[in-house]
Amino acid sequence: MHQPPIVTRFAPSPTGLLHLGHAHSALFGWKAARVAGGRFLLRIEDIDPVRCRPEFVAAIFEDLAWLGLEWESPVRVQSSHLADYAAALARLDAMGLLFPCFCTRKDIEAEINASGHAPHGPDGPVYPGLCRRLDPAQRAERLASGQPHAVRLDMAKAVDLVGQLDWRDQAAGIVAARPELFGDVVLARKDTPTSYHLAVTVDDALQGVNLVTRAADLFEATHVHRLLQELLGLPVPVWHHHRLLTDESGRRFAKRDRALTIASLRAAGHTPESVRDMAGFIP
Ligand code: GLU
């Protein structure tokens, strides 16, 4: 039978310079496509208007090219595709699965403190449901007055609708999806009309990505992505969550650690080969 070619992607957010952990991730996806004779894509995930900067986008291109990676053009830049996320959101809304959330961080904290129990999800405290329980008239009034709001998924309703799902990870095997761990996830933020979970799901489908490779710190996020795929009728890829590269003391790399950015290693005279080696990819 004819197998479609493997399509992988590396999808960094331009909120800082790429470090060795990113190099590992990029090389992982690139190699997975290459050994299978497949395609490798680069996507710029720049939906955060405050933290993303054009100079970091330029640095991503420069650093990856210097490392010896090649990717297809044009590169998808999320901020140029907000209409695609709006369309997905409208579809979920038509299914009655969304609600506007006017809460501030403070409102949420106060409610959690008052309720005396605070379940924690992979993205932080689980939303206590204040705006889900809003009286419809009050909700309409607040919307009409233009009060800023995020848009959340009614998780219990969504899970009820699709039932138990699973997904396949090349490293972990078949995984039972547990999106309920997240509670009512945000699908559109107050400051930007989408969220990481929505944009990544829509884009992987639109771009035909059928092998999602990324670090193990995003393993849990896949529960939500699998649910969104089901709700939106999107194709389901295979995942490979690879190990999270750490520094010598076992700490994960962070964008704030300047020393191990690809740019600083290059400036210190390292070759692309030696940086690929440090990132766990010996040629
Ligand atoms: N943009 C995300 C990040 O930089 C990665 C998205 C993904 O691979 O799913 O953490």
Automatic annotation (TrEMBL):
<dbReference type="InterPro" id="IPR014729">
    <property type="entry name" value="Rossmann-like_a/b/a_fold"/>
</dbReference>
<dbReference type="Pfam" id="PF00749">
    <property type="entry name" value="tRNA-synt_1c"/>
</dbReference>
<keyword id="KW-0479">Metal-binding</keyword>
<keyword id="KW-0862">Zinc</keyword>
<keyword id="KW-0436">Ligase</keyword>
<dbReference type="GO" id="GO:0005829">
    <property type="term" value="C:cytosol"/>
</dbReference>
<protein>
    <submittedName>
        <fullName>tRNA glutamyl-Q synthetase</fullName>
    </submittedName>
</protein>
<dbReference type="InterPro" id="IPR020058">
    <property type="entry name" value="Glu/Gln-tRNA-synth_Ib_cat-dom"/>
</dbReference>
<dbReference type="InterPro" id="IPR049940">
    <property type="entry name" value="GluQ/Sye"/>
</dbReference>
<dbReference type="GO" id="GO:0005524">
    <property type="term" value="F:ATP binding"/>
</dbReference>
<keyword id="KW-0648">Protein biosynthesis</keyword>
<dbReference type="GO" id="GO:0006424">
    <property type="term" value="P:glutamyl-tRNA aminoacylation"/>
</dbReference>
<keyword id="KW-0547">Nucleotide-binding</keyword>
<keyword id="KW-0067">ATP-binding</keyword>
<keyword id="KW-0030">Aminoacyl-tRNA synthetase</keyword>
<dbReference type="InterPro" id="IPR000924">
    <property type="entry name" value="Glu/Gln-tRNA-synth"/>
</dbReference>
<comment type="similarity">
    <text>Belongs to the class-I aminoacyl-tRNA synthetase family.</text>
</comment>
<dbReference type="InterPro" id="IPR001412">
    <property type="entry name" value="aa-tRNA-synth_I_CS"/>
</dbReference>
<feature type="domain" description="Glutamyl/glutaminyl-tRNA synthetase class Ib catalytic">
    <location>
        <begin position="6"/>
        <end position="275"/>
    </location>
</feature>
<dbReference type="GO" id="GO:0004818">
    <property type="term" value="F:glutamate-tRNA ligase activity"/>
</dbReference>
